[in-house]
């Protein structure tokens, strides 16, 4: 049987990560994977998470199954955090998932069960796993533009492209800190997108993975909440990997909003059934940690302070890199980087130039130019700026 398997495509991000692992240069710098690192280059366990784990260990009495929806208290806490104090949570349901990627896949399966062959629109460029997840679920994928010529959000172009999406379509939007570009819509742009969804009838599908790391937790959730208040139906995939640092604990949830209690309950059951055939039930530990943090005022305050500190470090990294690129005479790329938000930034380099950056300067980013701003050790930013400037200077 296995001899019949054709050569499958490999994952580009992990291919680069493996290449980095075999690179013996001492100065090598890995900016491929989207993980937060502190100034020394470590990915720390947040203090609020560590305290929650201690409390859980002290009171742990059982590891009994939680059920197909996972941890119900976690689902309630995520609904409250994402949708905020309003009526929207009353017409929503959440199912715990295996991280944000699992939420994307469960919701993609829900779309396919509801309308097989539905077209889902994704941005170009998009998170590297969006298309594979959607197509694996049996959905059709179309793209809409995202950035203008200077690397900022192309408001007019996006609205024009999505005006072609119809009532039977779904539009995948990243709620904040766009991956891979770091270019985000303004609140006015989000309001225009919400009006377009209402007018044309397409369903927003929000991927929420970096909230708290752009402009602050409440500000980063504004777009999702605004859409939820305007549209009759909506899907949301939520990840706790980045803002709680629970990368390997694979913690997330899938949220559905509907116009009636009946439709929401049917969707919740469909999500449970899909989960049952994929992995049965999600892992408990990360969800219990998040619940413990969000249900305790002191831990919530500590977590939010840590999240703000992480966001501050990301902003400082971006500002320093911007200033150094400008000092090297590359003011255009510096201006583009300065407008971006979140963990990632797109360098204005071609795939061949990114290859040169890797081979000549031991700096690893993705082939399309994405680098992890949140992963730069504090003392390596000047080295990164020199490498980028050197590649730009040979054009």
Question: What can you see in these coordinates?
Answer:
This protein is an alpha/beta fold. The chain contains 14 helices and 11 strands. It has helices at residues 12-22, 47-59, 72-83, 99-114, 130-136, 155-162, 187-200, 217-230, 261-278, 285-294, 297-327, 331-339, 351-361, 381-392; strands spanning 29-30, 92-98, 119-124, 140-145, 170-174, 203-208, 234-239, 251-257, 344-346, 363-364, 370-372. The strands form 3 sheets. A 7-stranded mixed β-sheet has the order 2-8-7-6-5-3-4, sandwiched between helices. A two-stranded parallel sheet has the order 1-10. The longest helix has 31 residues, at 297-327. It is globular and about 60 Å long.
SSE arrangement:
Blueprint (H helix, E strand, L loop, with lengths): L11 H11 L6 E2 L16 H13 L12 H12 L8 E7 H16 L4 E6 L5 H7 L3 E6 L9 H8 L7 E5 L12 H14 L2 E6 L8 H14 L3 E6 L11 E7 L3 H18 L6 H10 L2 H31 L3 H9 L4 E3 L4 H11 L1 E2 L5 E3 L8 H12 L3
Parallel strand pairs: 1-10, 3-4, 3-5, 5-6, 6-7
Antiparallel strand pairs: 2-8, 7-8, 9-11
Helix pairs in contact: 2-10, 2-11, 4-9, 7-8, 11-12, 11-14, 13-14
Give a quick summary of the entry.
By secondary structure, this protein is an alpha/beta fold.
